[in-house]
Amino acid sequence: MAKYLILIYGNEQRWADMPAEQQPVHDAAHRAFSAAAGGRVLAAEQLEFTSTATTLRSDPHGRVVTTDGPFLETKEALGGFYLLEAADLDEAIALASQLPEVHADHSGVEIRPVVDHG
């Protein structure tokens, strides 16, 4: 079995402005995904908004510099992830296709294979 990181991106303002009646529907879709994936979900977390992020970089002298928030301005932010075990990319795509962010007009899902260092 291979491991895939399912990265969920979207517009943070749209997530923040989600109507209260839509939130349970959204959460139910994630529960349905988790149920369908079963034990293949190895880890999953929702992330706080990018305003809480801290970025680390080194300056020209090799010292670590911290910056509040994300380094790049972007319309879509990383909102959460699933670490999934699947037989192959086709299975990962089939499972991830159930996520509500795939079907929303302001978000999307990226699937990245995890390197197996053996």
- The geometry reads as flat
* Strand percentage: 35-45%
**Strand arrangement in the largest pleated sheet:** 2-5-1-6
Enter the CATH topology name: Alpha-Beta Plaits
Radius of gyration: 16 Å
Q: Care to count the β-strands?
A: 6
Residue stretches low in confidence (pLDDT < 50, at least 5 long) are: none
Which class of secondary structure composition applies to the elements?
A: alpha+beta
Which characteristics define this entry?
4 helices, alpha+beta, single chain, 118 residues, two-stranded antiparallel sheet, 6 strands
Explain the overall architecture.
The chain is α+β, with helices and mostly antiparallel strands and 118 residues long. 27% of the residues lie in helices and 36% in strands. The chain is flat and about 50 Å long. The two termini are 13 Å apart. The mean pLDDT is 91.
Give a nutshell description of this structure.
The chain is α+β, with helices and mostly antiparallel strands.
